[in-house]
Amino acid sequence: MRHIEWRRRALLGGMATLAAGRALAQREARVVVSSKIDTEGALLGNLILLALGQAQVPTEARLGLGPTRIVRQALLAGEIDLYPEYTGNAALFFDRANDPAWRDADRAYAMAAELDKGRNNLVWLPRAPANNTWTIAVRRDVATRERLATIGDLFAAAGRGAMRLAASAEFVESPAALPAFEAAYGASFPRDRITVLPGGDTAVTLRAAAQGISGVNAAMAYGTDGAIAALNLVVLRDDKGAQIVYEPAPVVRAAVLERFPAIRDALSPVFASLDLATLQKLNARIAVEGQPAPAVARAYLGEIGMLR
Asked: How far apart (Å, rounded) are the C-alpha atoms in residues 117 and 121?
């Protein structure tokens, strides 16, 4: 009986090992694509899935997995293979936020790629030329009238009483937000010219600027907010590099890229096409017009001739 029981257990163990081996083989036969749980994450994740499908790279979708911490940990643990990340977040991943390199787009990308390859064997593929960092957006007619192109121009206009800013308390008080702009430009935005709105939703501040609520004509924003284009606002250029640069790029495990080298050629032209205005427009289709992210991604790839 003992011999029979031993053989039965051995057989079951062998079957379990075989099943585990098959599961691993099936897992390695496809690329698990993920994204963060936000509008732009859904857009970029769907663009990646579609582009890889066109390149005949087998994929499994796990989009909208969670916030940065969750998705990043899943990549490090090998639970997912690829997702879109932002260059500036590498400053936090590696506790290097004070390095001035993060405020230059090229240097930020190069440092993120070098640090992640060296420590985690992760590859940063070519990035999109669109900075999704803290910024300030103003009404287009005001920008034209006051000749506003940069954050420096904004401070000059604020000094002569031409601007009123809508922002959250965090934006006004956090050293990383308005105070960082003020330190870089050597100027202050008059606090009596700031309308502090509850919460941190940029959709609210942007709407206040667009509609001129309480005299507001400028708003805190993120660079690729979809409402910017929809509300006819313009983003002011941070020419002194007050903010860390956050450009999106696909990040993939090196072993996966080695198994599926077509990933690079499939994704590089897609991300190269996503400049600031384009991302604002595509995000607006989802966040403002209510179109599904997969449909927006498919339509865009068709527009740029990347769908057969």
From this structure: 4
Burial class of 195 by CB neighbour count within 10 A (0 to 12, 13 to 18, 19+):
middle
pLDDT of residue 23: 45
Q: Which domain holds residue 214?
A: 134-235
* Residues 107, 70 within the same domain: yes
User: In the predicted model, is pLDDT for residue 21 greater than 60?
Assistant: no
Instruction: Report the distance separating Cα 58 and Cα 52, nearest Å.
Output: 7
- Same domain membership, residue 42 and residue 116: yes
- Three-state secondary structure call for residue 128: coil
Backbone angles phi, psi at 212, to 5 degrees: 65, 30
Q: Which amino acid is at 299?
A: A
Please name which of 136, 147, 276 lies closest in space to residue 208, comparing C-alpha atoms.
Answer: 136
| Distance from the first to the final alpha carbon of the chain | 64
Are 125 and 252 a contacting pair, CB within 8 Å?
yes
- For the whole prediction, is pTM greater than 0.70? yes
